[in-house]
From TrEMBL:
Family stated for the protein in its record: Belongs to the LysR transcriptional regulatory family.
Positions of the HTH lysR-type domain: 1-53
Lineage top rank: taxon: Bacteria
Key words, A-Z: DNA-binding, Transcription, Transcription regulation
Organism: Defluviimonas salinarum
Protein name, UniProt field: LysR family transcriptional regulator
SUPFAM superfamilies: Periplasmic binding protein-like II, Winged helix' DNA-binding domain
Transcription regulation is among the record's keywords: yes
UniProt xrefs under InterPro entries: LysR-type_TF_proteobact-type (IPR058163), LysR_HTH_N (IPR000847), LysR_subst-bd (IPR005119), WH-like_DNA-bd_sf (IPR036388), WH_DNA-bd_sf (IPR036390)
Amino acid sequence: MTTFEAAARLGSFTRAAEELNVSQPTVSHHVQTLEAAIGAELFSRHHNRIALTRAGRALADAVALGLGHIEQAARQIALRPSGSGLVLACSMGFTHGWLLPRFSRLRLALSDYPIHLVTTDWHQGFDRETADIIVDWQSVGRASRTTIPLFPEIVFPVCSAGYLNEHPELATADAQPRALLGCTLLHFDERDSEFANWEKWFAAQGVVYGIPPNAYRFSNYDLILRAVADGEGLGLGWLHLIEERLAAGSLVRVGRTLCNEMTAYGLDVRHGTVPDDVLERAVAWFRSEAGAPGQEF
């Protein structure tokens, strides 16, 4: 599975072999063995180029999720003792879309105080007894924590510029939301969550939509954005997580915006394990970067 994951992530048997320090035929043999065991073709081969099939992408998402959980568990086990650093927990989507482009500024704001970044695909995976700050979705106040809102849910459909050119009907999407029904819609496997999905977005536009059983689902939000940027279809974009991609032109907004003030990202803060002034600086930094109003800490 690790061999398959490397080939799927890198899009090349040769590059996967280099990363794993094995021969290219070994990688190819592992993939062929896996395909035979599963009974499905995982890659389409075109001369020296490979591309994931639908079955391959579904398995790649599952493997990435499984390896992510293993990495998450290992990181939590290896966390330094309390007081040796700030433990910051975020979802993978928030980490890639919002935090990492700003991470150097956070370190500067904390005067290089150690930060242990713990990531997971799902908010339910956070270890709330270990983290000092959790960037949570629809945070709920807890007796031992202070809940601090960052920004509300602002979401709209996005696609690549190439996909938009191939589907000129999307130019009318603001006035005709039904125009999206004829496109390939990519779905985030959101489990039990309050945040928006395609059903909720269409319902807000007065359009009835049911997710088909063969929907193109992803278990990792960053993978959806990559697929959208590659022209594979339409995805839902959360404004604060895709601002850089919009500015760079890899994603293009199409259709109406859904705003929900009742669902939001926020900070769950735990006192007592790091100095209060470190927590105060970290919270002030998040508020400033998010443009959130000040409040008592």
